[in-house]
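Team,

Forwarding the record for the chain on the shared tracking sheet. I've put the sequence and predicted structure together so nobody has to dig through attachments.
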Amino acid sequence: MLDIDTERDEFSLPDVKWQKAQFILGQSCFDWGCRRVTRLEIQILRGNATYWKTVCPAVRPECASMDRLLKGDQSTVFIVAEDWEWEQFWQSIAVLRQLVLMPHLTSEAPGVIWTSLSVARAAASGAALSEGVLRGSG
């Protein structure tokens, strides 16, 4: 479920989904250098990222590194990948963590919301939907 403000033409994550994003991305299994990551953990992350990119299109390119890790041997519990695939994944995690952990940003309302241009506004202005905005309270 998304929170939709039709007057301001914004989509946002409900508080509980925002907290889930912070929890998932804060797990130590996603820390830089950790290669002991289960396929299920990546699947959970990727499924949630699909939901997040609805309101924050900046998440979309980061999904590629998750997909790359998931494409390997499906019979293994833990992810087996090349060094460069891990590097790209850790870089994506760093970007996603920055998106959810930026307390210095300001907003009119308490809490943090990701917003995205609506299809109508983007079409009218010619703006790309990939221009997501992150706003939060500090």
